[in-house]
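ping. complex inputs:
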Amino acid sequence: MDKIVIHGGERLVGEVTISGSKNATLPIFASSLLAEGENRLHGVPDLKDVKTICEVLKNLRVKIARGKGGDYLLDSTDLIGHEAPYNLVKTMRASILVLGPLVARTKRALISLPGGCAIGARPINLHLEGLEKLGAEIQLRHGYIEAKTKGLRGADICLDVPTVTGTENLMMAAALAKGETVIENAAMEPEVVELAEVLNKMGANISGAGSSIIRIKGTRRLMATEHTIIPDRIEAGTFMVAAGVTNGNIHIRNCDFEHMEAVVNKLREAGIEILREDDGARVIGNKRIKSVDVKTLPYPGFPTDMQAQIMVLMTIAKGLSVISETIFENRFIHVGELRRMGARIKVEGNRAIINGVKGLSGAPVMATDLRASASLVLAGLAAEGETEVSRVYHLDRGYDKLEEKLANLGAHIRRVKA
Ligand code: EPU
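pong. complex structure:
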């Protein structure tokens, strides 16, 4: 397995362009199952997870052609498959996003049930209960979700928690249901808004996305559309922290400030200067990082996907900070590895108490989750000496050319092929 080797201590300076959002791309690719014709998507990031969703869709007989850069054509006019097998779903839980559109379009789906994951149990009960309300019959057998329907019809669905992919799955299913669906306590993430926009371009009638109540008036047919994926707010946030931990000065292009308020405010509170520029942000580090407390929350709160990264910043801040993780029950996988690099962190339940140290020291580390792995790369950039991050495949799932982008900013970073 590949490793990333970092020689820390370099100040990162220069320009970086953020890629398309992973968590916007995955549901938008799944939404191509709903429409007839050729969907044209631009700005798609080059990621392992995108390859996986392509495999899932190809298995359903969607025709996919990849053009130059991040251009893709997806055509599901002649959709005939209905199965997402175990070998694909086990590599990417977000494969569950094909469930809603498949049931809506072909009235039938057989999807491997995603199991637990490194960061938590991650149940999908709300996806299934919502689909049942819409008129799907669901059975769990031999590790698979078997769903069928004589035809979906609109319903009132109130989610116990604002699940992101759950909201997306139900919104896609409801787009082809008969009558009106109302999703209450819906997720408000920018990626949900983006999906609603794509569905509306396909001819759906969705309002309220971005608020906690989404209304979907079902339509009989949806037609393919063209769309450019929004920038990845978590990748942008990760580079902002990279500027912070290296006392750098980075111009971050293609980043949407509107989607990053909670992250920008926290980083500013920690003493990092963030200036808004036409196409993104300029981020200027500070030798004296201040400790701040962070609590992860659904959007517009501080994203759980940035929790590990800001923790690295806090390991070298002055004073004590408390990070509370309220979304996933096991998302402190990075703590043990950061301790190996000299960080002083104590975990009590869902809170990590971090006592800032003068500096981190490089060490061999690894993590079993995407954002935890990104945090170890950030720690390696900040640390004195050499850090070797193994299990790089987690990073490849969600960061487009991370080491290349960091090297362009002056980091001493290289990939060692297995
Ligand atoms: N939940 C339930 N029942 C459900 C669904 C969710 O109890 O049926 C709970 C979860 O256990 C969790 C909370 O609801 O406690 C929120 O989970 P959510 O369903 O919103 O997470 P997700 O949709 O599976 C997406 C992102 C994650 C991101 C979370 C939270 C995608 C493809 N994935 O996951 O991204 O952490 O929302 O914002 O959009 C990542 O990119 O690294 C990543 C993990």
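Residues 154 and 179 are 5 Å apart (CA to CA).
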